[in-house]
């Protein structure tokens, strides 16, 4: 018998090494189970021939006890589940170690009962197991220990013992051990040499029968489970996690014979577990249990007496015996179930060893306790379904995030429709915050920076003692939970309001409202400054606000900040606009011309001779016209150029327009009404003498003349650089677009044109009306010398290649050139006028320089009265600005060649003065400007 058993063990081991069967045995794809049966059945027909060859080779190889131990160890390692230790003792070694091994109670009981003994982890506290020597290498705490006695030819003869330590013993493994246990007569291992002489046919017959029994038991239980899990996996196609859980839970109940089953899924973001389904019931509201919760001991990892602490910390299964009765009752109450027997198995991710879920089953139908086989069923199930479950949950979270993103976009749309009313906006914020986080109430507090208080003007369910709505609540910025968030600028998620030291419970006592939990978050601007605080109370769909709520609140706070900031800004802007409107009305009122002035100017009819016979000549200096006559002169120029007739300008509208423009100019030394009159006069002379109608259309000439008249309205005597450096109101309005003062001049011109009775364009057709305003804008902006310098090369190219009347670009450049030449036309007049103009300009320059010094800035040389060198600077100005302009103009219009010559003549005089002053110490500016020339060209007024 012993020889036959030896052949059986060795041959079975060798047959397990058959590649076809082994591949099928280890296949992960359970869909091929049917194919595995087919492979095995096909191979069974040829098994006898195959085993004969294998046995022949193996029996020749096994020649001693040591090799037999090795073969048995390899066989058991393959048959049992996750073996960690295998100890095999036969008669020789048993005799040597009899004093140690046979004294062990587990071994002695196995020999006494003449059958295998299986010790499960739950039995390790039995005195018999505890008595095992600590030095025994196969003693363990959390594994299954199998002790298999090997009996000799006589029943009482102890031939050997086999001890194996593994993680799990199922029906398949029990069947394998039963085959070995049935062959008890193993004493003849001593006579191993005789095993070789046994006829091979007898060994094959014995081995073949043993294998068939082994195969049928090995394939039975696991095949059924594999088929069931495959069927379950085929049904797990639901995109909804609750539907998926229902199917998994139903499978677990059927396989473990449990009346109740549920999953506690791990929410890593919130550090808690949540349950959505219990048995066949989907909970209306998911149950959440905080892992560290102060109110519950269910999941406190640090508490060894907590319900799931052992399962979480050690990631080991637990039963109802491991749970304190108090905690078990709390779990029953929380899930509304009754528990008699209980098993909780952690499901661990293979990727990162993190917890996926706690699988809980309760109450066996037959009243028995759950066993290790139930643990194996659960682990076997989630070996294939855990990935589906986690993927579905991740999909649901992504879908939830997508829905929340859509909701936030809708929130933004809703919020930005109430920017005109802060109260409505705050109510909308409160409503949207409640909807996004499923909160019962919401409060919004804004910070009053003047009093350093938190102010709430809109309330959610809070009334006074007389049940009247509150008008306003104020409290110090550092007071309470809202004050803490406002001070720290950090979100605060309070799971138990009454246990928090900052919670102010008086409001609850006065209103009867019970605050359970609070989510309070700051509303911050882009600089991180807190402008307000939003406080949400009582999560309606859970025990507390989650990390997802925190993320939504943080995103929502951005929209709140933008909308509140814009609303406050809008209100300030609205107030400013109203004040500006009042100021404009006041300004227009004081700029209004009297009916007497209008009537007098309307009635007066002037001719060219009333001013000068040379009034329409380039040599005429318009500054010689008395200021009181300038308005009449402007009206005359409108009439003389045919504008009033061509564009149907009413005489009273024209007069009001001229008088309003005059009043629109301030009184700096140079950029005043007289300068505007001089510039407009040069445009008039150009139209009269330079054949502009051959180059420009009528509307362009009309726009040029009006622009010359309006181009410096409300000039403050300072340039664009000063406006930007001083951060003036004008710079704030126009600096982003450039040409600060020029844009202001155009804006003021539009203001006058829009004044009742002053619109000289009122009778223009719609398209021409729009075009003339566009032309005015472009022409006035061209007075910025920076703009002129940018287009100077293009102007020279245009003159060199020839003017194209059909080119819109050439039209625009010519208008810019004409406007600049009109603006600089004082340089084309006689020396006396030019010198006088220089004095006016430097008065403005020095005034600006003094203002810059007052601001702590160092002015440039020409604006510093202590460093300015007027002759040199005038020469530089003429060389770099004026002469290039009039050179291009003279090349294009031969009639303007005398203007260029006049500029050269004035430059020559400045150069003469500069040469004289080189040999002298610095002269006062007044003395420099007093220098003149006699008829012989000699300098007079120079002190010896």
TrEMBL record:
Residues 593-917 form the PDEase domain. PROSITE patterns: PDEASE_I_1 (PS00126), PDEASE_I_2 (PS51845). Binds 2 divalent metal cations per subunit. Site 1 may preferentially bind zinc ions, while site 2 has a preference for magnesium and/or manganese ions. This is Phosphodiesterase. Its EC number is 3.1.4.-. Zn(2+) 1 binds at residues 675, 711-712, 823. It is an enzyme of class 3 (hydrolase).
